[in-house]
Amino acid sequence: MRVGGMRICKIWDGDYPWDVRVEKVATALAGAGHELHLVCRNQARRQRQEWDQGFMIHRLQTLPAVFGPANTLWNFPYPFNPAWIRVITQVIREMKADLILVRDLPVALPAAIIGKTYGIPVVLDMAENYPAMLRDRLRYVPTGLLGRLVRSPALARFVERLTVRLVDHILVVIEESRERLIQLGVPPGRLTVVRNTPNLEQVRVVRDLSFSPDTEAGTTLVYLGNLDGGRGLDVAIRAVRLLADGGVLTRLLIIGDGPDMQQYRDLASRLAVSARVIFQGRSPLSTALAMVARCDIGVIPQYVTAHTDSTVSNKLFDYMLAGLPVIASSARPTARIVRSEECGEIFLDRDVTDLARCIRALQDPQRRRDKGLRGQAAIHERYNWSCDSRTLVQTLEEVGSRRKAGLARAIQPSGS
Questions:
Q1: What global pTM score does this model have?
Q2: Mind listing the domains of the chain with CATH numbers?
Q3: Which of 120, 167, 229, 353 is geometrically suited to a Cys-Cys bond with 124, CB 3.0 to 4.6 A?
Q4: What pLDDT does residue 4 have?
Q5: Is residue 398 exposed (0-12), middle (13-18) or buried (19+ Cβ within 10 Å)?
């Protein structure tokens, strides 16, 4: 660690490894000379402490195996879970933390309170509109009674409004999220956009032989991501059927899995397009990106909701990096970027006919190439982790320097 570097306690509510943003943030801060300690869940029962890529991982304590599923509840990141509070407090005291960086809302409130207690600035890394995400989850994903109780949008809304007033600074992933928080009363000076963009130095698209697009099958669309409610793949599958009826051959490759996979399989079967809708399942990121790069068009057919209107999908940048034109629904952040960069087409939310229109508009290979190259150029110029990591490091150093300045004033002798 360089002289003057900060000791940062980063908190994430999931198991690590792995999460792409956690890794990028942690390695960027460690690379900038700061000492980073990651506190995370331990549902997988890994070792409590582990050194990884320049930072230390501190996992929650687990319950003995005899307690079975109780370990899941013990690790669950609900506000004021004593297991989380104990580990966070222990780590920041032992490492003498200069700053707390907490990812997402579930453990942000206790982190903010602990920070206030110990006089440590707290920065919230807000990946999404969490209350709106929970509303979408309840609306589109079958959820049991316990899930409805612990994932209450109303409770999340209350926790969010309290938390954003307690933390010292907030990182958001897109400008529309910043606008939303300003409307909630957060001063603009406490908000910084740090997008979840690709790391150009680490991305290596390797030729993958497990999927070979058949040019005789027509245009190949690709979807990369989770298969749960609100993703809009039903719209994409119906568009494949509509285009086939009009004599336009289209194939849809779906990379990922989730609770709605069987539902989408059944829909493809009912519409008699099973041969044209390929469920690849989940693949390692490098393999998935290799498959993406060999397709013709990247699709983001997500439903437009309060959630998707205030966040952006990682897959947008993955498609652009691979040089694919993008077809996306009219969710505000994604539509704004696609239109401003002229790298694809936008269709009206859940409108199968309009999606089919966009696919027809990109049947010409030269048109696809032109739009794909524009998107790829935008990634190399603006939407990449080299740019966003500089903003991240600069922002956290500024927040940390304000604390050091305050401490210096506090210990300065009176009258000096």
A1: 0.92
A2: 7-197+385-411 (3.40.50.2000), 215-381 (3.40.50.2000)
A3: 167
A4: 63
A5: exposed
